[in-house]
Amino acid sequence: MMIELFPEGFEELAGPESIELAAFTDESGAEALRARFDDVRVDAVADGWESEWRRFHRPVTVGSLWIGPPWLEPDPGLIAVVVDPGLAFGTGAHPTTRLCIELLQSLEPASLLDVGCGSGVVAIAAAKLGFEPVTAIDDDEAAILSTERNAAANGVAVAPLLFDAATAVLPDAEIAVANIDSRTIAELKPSERCGVLVTSGYYESERPSVPGFARAERLAEERWAADVFRRE
Description:
The chain is built from six helices and twelve strands. Strand 9 (175-179), helix 6 (182-187) and strand 10 (196-203) form a beta-alpha-beta unit. The strands form three sheets. The chain has a seven-stranded mixed beta sheet with strand order 8-7-6-9-10-12-11, covered by helices on one side. It folds into two domains: 2-44, no CATH class; 57-231, Rossmann fold (3-Layer(aba) Sandwich). By secondary structure, the chain is of the alpha/beta class.
């Protein structure tokens, strides 16, 4: 019922004996709540509530890269990757994203494909590290728009493409990065030109395989893992 009333989002607060669902709304929204729920409380919110979410986004450092939101200043001496999360997944803070970018820094720059680009953080980091050309694909239009916006803000060349990676051979690139999930990774069809595949999005206990590729390296952090596969 909350999703129907507030499709743009609401907050869930778990207590010891109950769950409270909270929406930021006006009086008409409060009336809609009262019509659907028996127990409704209305509280005034403090000034600046609309930007309170920003405090949850903290910058991270991965090797030579500083990855953070546009309202924070990058650390001096590091290459800045500025990412506004928007509606797409990916700020650089998740262990799987950090692991992928760490593995990229151990590879020789070449053409690169970011599979499931989200906000574009991996693609932008790759471009900053000298990989080119960089293509970013996702089946979510919001991700493509977010990647376009973030790439432009960082002054790098990334070609976003609306593409369902599970249905066809992937676009050409020497290196492909797929930070998605182990089931989809096992179904990927890299192009014949692809010789290196960097994968993540799964727990350390999972060991996905890709036909025609052999695992060459693995990193793990906070129960998450990332692998480098090379074509056999």
